[in-house]
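#lab-general

N.A. 3:47 PM
ok so I finally got the sequence cleaned up, no stray characters, all 298 residues accounted for. can someone with queue access submit it? mine expired

B.Y. 3:52 PM
send it over

N.A. 3:53 PM
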Amino acid sequence: MLNRERFLKEYNLQRTFDRSGLEWKRLEEIYLDYNKNAYTLLQDLSSRLVAELMQKRKDIRKDKGVGKLQSGNDIHVIYGRAKEPEHVIEKIIRKVGEEDSQKYRNIDVDNYKNILKDLIGIRIIVVKKEGWEEAHDLICALFDEFYDDTPKAYVCYGDRKIFDEKRIDVNYTIKGYRSQHYIIQYGMYYAEIQVRTLAEEVYGEFDHRVRYPYFKNNKFLIRYTNMISRGIAELDDMISTCMQLDEELLEKLDHNFKGDKYTDWAKEPVQLHHQVLEEQSERVAGGNIEEILKYKLL
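B.Y. 4:20 PM
back already:
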């Protein structure tokens, strides 16, 4: 059973639930059915889907003869999961109580598997922004069609235009969120595949844990998540630029930056270690460095 008082308090949902007008009994029926009949199955399906994507990528790379440092090697990792049972109920309440989603308003134990399109969530992480093409081609190699208006790329105003709008719908947002979404049918269920860069994944995790969904209107967090979002975009641009340089140009740039000096990390720890030893020896009555080392006082 799902404890109503504990759940609404833990997820800060009391007001949202009250506004939703949803019956707790209906939500509890969904929770019990999902937890008992679907969750384990979806975990297995997510693992199978990840395995299929990884195998298809190997096949594509083998056919193209792609090497480790060649283009077409932008996918860093692929992983997946089934949505946690409590997060299913949380999403339903927020969709109705905050977004007034009509699609979710009549949700029940008989139709929730068709309404919720992200019960299986797959993440494809790419190294640089241009890696979206490799991920896109990989997904399209396994699936001929997508649900509704996906695939969709969420971008921010001011971002570089790298997406081919004939292949993916581009949606501009001011929320700082960047990701590509694909919704596919896998077996009897739907799965949402998201493609992000490593940097965008960091932002997504930060925003989801710190601001969304509990402090979406907090002005302090809005300011700082926006700043982090802009920094993430600049980081991705720098990564893309460096990875697009050929060997000849890199050698020329290396010549231009010969004057740069960096800390010699091979020597610095030794110097720091002796400094610590000296400080320790002063604190130990009658002690010296040799005695400290001998008796392992450090």
